[in-house]
Hints:
Helix content is 27%, strand content 42%. It is an alpha+beta fold. The chain folds into 2 domains: 1-41; 48-135, Cupredoxins -  blue copper proteins (Immunoglobulin-like, Sandwich), CATH 2.60.40. Strands 3, 5, 6, 7, 9 and 10 form a 6-stranded mixed beta sheet that branches. It is elongated and about 70 Å long. It starts with a helix and ends with a strand. Keywords: Membrane, Transmembrane, Transmembrane helix. This is EfeO-type cupredoxin-like domain-containing protein.
Amino acid sequence: MNHPRRNLTSTVSKILLTVFFISFGFVMGIVYQRKLEAKNECGVSKHEYTVFIEKKRFKPAKVKAKRCNKLIFANKDSKLHSVVFGTHDNHVPYGDFVQEYLLPKERVSLKLFQAGTYLFHDHLHEEIKGQIIVDSN
């Protein structure tokens, strides 16, 4: 026997869940759109900074740059390295940049579109750490 009250509760739960997912998707879309707009307004990079990975360290380990500049990670070592933003236990994506594996002599670049102070590290070699400070211009 179907109980009208149980059916009503089930229907209300489904509606609330649907509203939650639609709202969540809407908010995430706004966040993504704002990041995309900030990235696109930069245009062509005027300056670029290269951080070399060699001898178990980043050189330089601390970089000060401006928004819309370009940051390059270059592996000058003979080992595989993995560049990640955040701490070893808490990776934080920087725009589209999540984690990059670099073979010896490989490089990867990204545009610095978001101001702030960011830690980065080599996830394969935990002791290799660095920091970038991105000024808003």
